Amino acid sequence: MAGHSQFKNIMHRKGRQDAARSKLFSKLSKEITVAAKLGAPDPDMNPRLRLAVQNAKAQSMPKDNIERAISKASSGDDENFEEIRYEGYGPNGVAVIVEALTDNRNRTGGAVRAAFTKHGGNLGSTGSVAHMFNRIGEITYPVAVGSNDDVLEAAIEAGADDVQSDENGHVITTTFDTLGTVASELETALGEAETVKAVWTPTVTTQLDADGAESIMKLIAVLEDDDDVQQVFTNFEVDDETMAKLTA
Questions:
Q1: Which CATH entry fits the domain spanning 132-202: 3.30.70.980, 3.30.420.40, 3.90.1150.10, 3.40.50.10860?
Q2: Are 85 and 50 in contact (CB under 8 A)?
């Protein structure tokens, strides 16, 4: 497994989190509010909002928090968030995509640029690395949801493109455009997912040794600690031996 998903597995196995739960809820709330402002405040009428709510529920975000985030969209406050995608190269030439929601472009851009510079990378222009990734939908379920065959059958019925199952759980992928529909069908068949989101998956990867992997992981951790950053994706890859060292 390459890139950011691999990094997440490493961090999970080491028993660490990139941010406190309150920070995670804050980011989820921001996405819900933005989705509700851009469309109807009803998840059934707003695909993006439905995905945001599904993801929040999957992270055990309280119902009251979700409802407050939706209500905030129509509260008349002056806080407006802008979606920005940053692209660049981290240490060892690793391609990095950063997705952010911000009410201050200068603040966020400055923080992202500083993180790249401090950790041996360079922030590029929009489109500088996106051509090395595909935009797809990703839905994850825990192992306990069912057997590999059961999940595969449900995914096929829902119209998913692929399923990867291992000891960490089930990762179901779809086209970006069908993510909402497939997630809804899977929720009916399997229950609420752990995560439902659009991701950037690399088509070209950069192989790293243990030192290289540690370097890019530090950059990812700093970026994800920023309140404005929603998601970070990379194209790094490590072999099984290196993975074993990192997770020891």
A1: 3.30.70.980
A2: no
Report domain extents, the chain: 3-72, 82-127+205-246, 132-202
pTM of the predicted model over 0.90? no
- Token digits for 199? 């991701």
Residue 175: phi and psi, rounded to 5, are -70, 155
Between CA 208 and CA 148 the distance in angstroms is 31
Distance, in Å, from the CA atom of 102 to the CA atom of 92, rounded to the nearest integer, reads: 28
What pLDDT score was predicted for residue 50?
86
pLDDT at 12: 43
How far apart, in whole angstroms, are the C-alpha atoms of residue 181 and residue 47? 9
Q: Mean pLDDT check: name the lowest of 1-5, 80-84, 96-100.
A: 1-5
pLDDT in tens, 152-186: 999 999 999 999 999 989 999 999 999 988 988 99
Do 82-127+205-246 and 132-202 agree at the fold level? yes
Please check the confidence at residue 200 and state whether its pLDDT lies above 60.
Answer: yes
C-alpha to C-alpha distances, 47 to 39, 43, 171, 207, 227, nearest whole angstrom: 9, 7, 21, 37, 24
